[in-house]
Amino acid sequence: MVAAEAAPYATVGGFSSVVAYLSRNMLPLGVDVRIFMPKFGSIDLEKYHMEMVYEGLEVPTDDENNPYLICNVKSYTGEDGVITYFLENQEYFEKRANVYNYSDDPTRWALLSRGLLEFIRQDSFKPDIVHCNDWHTGLVSNYLKTTYRKDPVLSKITSVFTIHNLAIQGYLLNHTNPTELEYDDGKSPVAHFFNPRLNTQNFMKRGILYSDIVNTVSKSYSKEILTPDFGENLDKLLLELRGKLFGIINGLDYEEFNPETDQMLPKNFNIDSIDDRAINKKALQEEFGLPVKEDVLLLGFVGRLDYQKGVDLIVEALPHVLRDFDVQFVQIGGGDGGLAHRLHLLREEFPDKVGIHPYPNFTLPRLVFGGADCILYPSRFEPCGIVQIEALRYGCIPIVRKVGGLADTVENFDSTKKTGNGLVFSDFNVFSLFATIIRALELRKNNKLWRKLQRNAMESDFSWEFSAREYIKLYNKGISFRNKKDVREKTIEDYLTS
What we know:
It contains 17 helices and 14 strands. It is an alpha/beta fold. A hairpin with a 5-residue loop joins strand 3 and strand 4. It starts with 14 loop residues before the first helix and ends with a helix. It folds into two domains: 15-251 and 466-497, Rossmann fold (3-Layer(aba) Sandwich); 274-459, Glycogen Phosphorylase B (Rossmann fold). Helices cover 37% and strands 15% of the residues. The strands form three sheets. Strands 11-10-9-12-13-14 form a six-stranded parallel β-sheet, with helices on both faces.
């Protein structure tokens, strides 16, 4: 399992948790899974005592003037039993204050990708599968199918590529409207580490093209990206290779996210003591300086301030709600400065109804899940989303747009049949979100129906064990695809020569 980040060692995006939890839940199923990631300087070495596994690993750069970068590989075995290997390089990883957003990011991730393959050649552990995650590791499959295609060890490895977010194909890459000089058809050799051309090569595209099998983090998203609206200029490629494209929903660690034992909640509860959530609601209102009112509909948003998440739609819709209805709103998460400013203006306009914390926070979200009545998630697009799954676990009702992973995890509540675990709307506009919030407001007045909805939410099962079993099936598919020469040629080589 190769990734730019993995919890708990480095966590920036949500997929760091996916890498960690998926790996952890594969071990009991008989899979010897190991993680490979950079050794960032921010990793707490006193907490994670690493051992040297390989010293002086020569990683080819393909540059005649500087043919190798020298790295070390260290390892740490977590309490869950998962072995993590860390690629150590002072210049490109340890001396950086952040994980992402450097001008030489393509070089850093090329180093990670090729460093992994060179390490596999030297180490005694020979994996059947290399599972790559997002654009940062897209070159792994590219190298396997080109540079190392005749290597006696690496040529036997099956590559799996998971798309966590197709919209991010490289921080320096203009993938939506590239010039002729910037366009990457994916067929040319990978540029050497220090060549400016590397900055214009699309690692995401190459990961999709060269991997034996590709998946997204929800079934709906795997279908949506076949269309121009969601395909981010790769929809035609994905359509051509759709025979190797699948979708598997992300999971949740139900032991860590457990309202009955969660130490971050003032009052623990379970599905049979949902009324105790009122104590957490009171604590949440006090935390944000809002009037303590049990009967008010308390809405929440947890996540980064991003147009993808539909935060702008929330800000546009809420004034119409807050002005005329007994509703409160709290927000947690940093991101876009313009959206943060609009949230500040919203709080100024409704100081008794709005509380904001436009910064990252790792403890307050649990209080929102355990105390708010509803969580808002009106995304423009959503590969999977984890917040709505976390909210369901705590009986906090998701109000979501029917898109991507939100559509796969949240079923619209039917008041007559009493089925469904959330409230869902389809169109991305203020009227649809406004109407769904009002529906929640009215539904909550019927205590019996609301309790049934909350029970349905808490009974939802999106455990990692299920997802892990689905990934094992995917791995077997990938091995099968790789071993069938006709399928491999159809999905890769025919495209390269077309």
